[in-house]
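dumping this here before i forget
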Amino acid sequence: TQLVVNNSDGTTRPGTPDDFKAIMSIHNDAQAAKVAVEMFGEQAPLVMYDRARVQEKMREREEALETNRHASAEREKLRTAEQMAKRERAQQQFARMGEDFKRMTSEAVEKYPQYFKAEEGDTEGERLLQKGFELMEKAFSGPNGLPAEQRVAVHAAMHNKAAAFDYVVYKARKEKAALTERVSELEKELEQFKSSEPGPDGGGHKKPAAFKTFEEEIDALAR
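structure:
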């Protein structure tokens, strides 16, 4: 806008951004220079210099965009590869966790058959265990196993049962120990009863260790 444009009728006017755009729109350098001389006269070299600078900046811009496109493509490839690797690691970890889960549950069943295996002939116990294991399989099968409402209810039951299991086992062992002790006491009392015989008054008297013959009784009195 600081330059002067020569009109075809010999008059002049201040330059405008559109005048520069007109020069820029000419792709042929010689033609652009000719038009610049016609419009700007001796100031044409300034216009052509600015035109060259803008063209250089435009080339740098295109090169930067192209470089960025290649870099973006490489970054996208790298990101995709990282995501695939991460997904594969997660799948492998999930598979290992599934294997460990099956192994640990099987080991627990074998280690504690008194809790996870019904006694022979106990059909009701076997039915309850089978029902419990089937329900847990569904609960651990994700969204496809049970509807959301049922899954929440099962998880709540699992939570409470798991929390109380150690106490239930402790209580059962305590009651079993008390019962075993009581049985032992009764067995001792029974043995004492078996080793005694009724007295004249109906009371129990300790049975002699062995029955002596008449001759042994005489010998005992003589001694």
